[in-house]
Write a structure and sequence with these properties.
Chain A is α/β, with parallel strands linked by helices. Chain A has one domain: Rossmann fold. Chain A is about 40% helix and about 20% strand. Chain A contains eight helices and eight strands, in the order αβαβαβααβββαβαβα. Chain A is globular, with a radius of gyration of 15 Å. Chain B is an alpha/beta fold and about 170 residues long. Chain B has one domain: Thiamin diphosphate (ThDP)-binding fold, Pyr/PP domains (Rossmann fold), CATH 3.40.50. Chain B has a six-stranded parallel sheet with strand order 2-1-3-4-6-5, sandwiched between helices. Classes of the chains: A alpha/beta (about 180), B alpha/beta (about 170).
């Protein structure tokens, strides 16, 4: 499966939760598949989906799912020790690990070579790290939400992109709509 | 006057309850004070752009955030300030140790100090420079201003403000 197929499959599972979605194609895909006020789309700032999600989870009680990529986590690798040492049981980091920088033309990442992000997360002190194959993600994600225990999921999948438009919604509108959903 | 306590009293009075820090020798006292306060959640960051991401999330979660860092971080965070904090219009007070200014003992710090105000000006970030200890009297107003206008705001605090490094 490629990322857009995964997002299509988990859309019903994440729809009722706060989602912080990674820059570029992941946000464009989620926006096209199932736009929700509970989605925060990143239009810039590669690498910070996990940090924004953690800050949000620590600030309020609703479940937060950060959708990130292997390339973005590598960009902000310092996020993993911060997550490990500031446990928020309403926080799930979902790393879609396709071993490539999808939005920029599928250049290979080091996660697609020798580096295993699940091992990095564990070495950083993250306690619930689950590695899952794309087709098996749905039930694993649902269980992580139900368990209310901070979880890092590394979902292995194929690289590949679909053609789709950019998000034209104004960033302040995205943020305002999202904050209203957080408070609802 | 205990300057560290005074600064953190102003944070609490302005309902700032989520503070991320990247350390600096000059900021050690204020970071200790942030850590000690019950009303503030202190989360150290590994890098300042990561900290700004945490602050963005905390703000959207209903908390008033703040970042405490060195001026060298301006070189690290330009993209984050432009495409996250400013683009989504989020408030972020930045208490910054202004290394490389008067009474600085480490020459290399001057190399970023000479760029600091120019970079902040280029980013249209409101910037205040505390040089004398009495300048702290403006801090409360600056915090109120930050959350009024929903912008990142820089408070540069030099070695003279913090009392220098001893006999120099």
């Amino acid at each position: 499966m490629i990322r857009s197929e995964i997002l299509r499959e988990i859309a019903p599972i994440i729809r009722d939760h706060l989602v912080v979605c990674n820059i570029g194609l992941p946000s464009q895909e989620l926006h096209m598949i199932d736009d929700q006020p509970t989605n925060f789309y990143m239009l810039g700032t590669m690498g910070l989906s996990s940090s924004i999600g953690l800050g949000l989870a620590l600030a309020q009680d609703k479940t937060v799912i950060s959708i990130d990529g292997d390339g973005s986590v590598l960009t902000n690798l310092g996020t993993l020790p911060t997550i490990a040492n500031n446990v928020a049981d309403n926080y799930i980091l979902l790393i879609i690990d396709n071993g490539s920088y999808g939005s920029t033309g599928d250049q290979p990442t080091y996660a697609g070579k020798k580096t295993k992000l699940e091992n990095v997360a564990e070495a950083c002190g993250c306690e619930n790290v689950i590695t899952v194959q794309d087709k098996d993600l749905g039930p694993v994600l649902q269980k992580a939400i139900d368990d209310r225990k901070m979880t890092v999921i590394v979902c292995k999948c194929d690289s590949g992109n679909i053609k789709l438009p950019v998000i034209t919604m104004d960033p302040v509108v995205i943020r305002h709509r999202f904050m209203q959903a957080v408070q609802a | 006057m205990n300057i560290d306590k005074r600064i953190v009293d102003d944070l609490v009075a302005n309902d700032i309850s989520f503070v991320t820090t990247v350390p600096c020798k000059q900021l050690a006292g204020v970071i200790d004070e942030v850590e000690a306060r019950d009303g503030i959640f202190h989360i150290p960051s590994n890098k300042e752009d990561e900290g700004m991401g945490l602050c963005a999330g905390a703000f959207m979660g209903g908390k008033r955030p703040m970042i405490i860092m060195q001026n060298t971080a301006i070189g690290v965070t330009i993209n984050t300030l432009a495409t996250l904090t400013q683009y989504y219009r989020m408030p972020l007070p930045m208490l910054i140790s202004y290394r490389g200014e008067l009474r600085e003992p480490v020459a290399c710090q001057v190399e970023m100090a000479v760029h600091t105000k120019a970079l902040l000006a280029q980013m249209n970030i409101p910037t205040y420079h505390f040089h004398w200890q009495k300048d702290v009297e403006e801090f409360d107003n600056i915090l109120k201003y930050t959350f009024m206008c929903n912008k990142p705001v820089a408070i540069l605090t030099d070695a003279n403000f913090w009392g220098g490094y001893g006999d120099q």
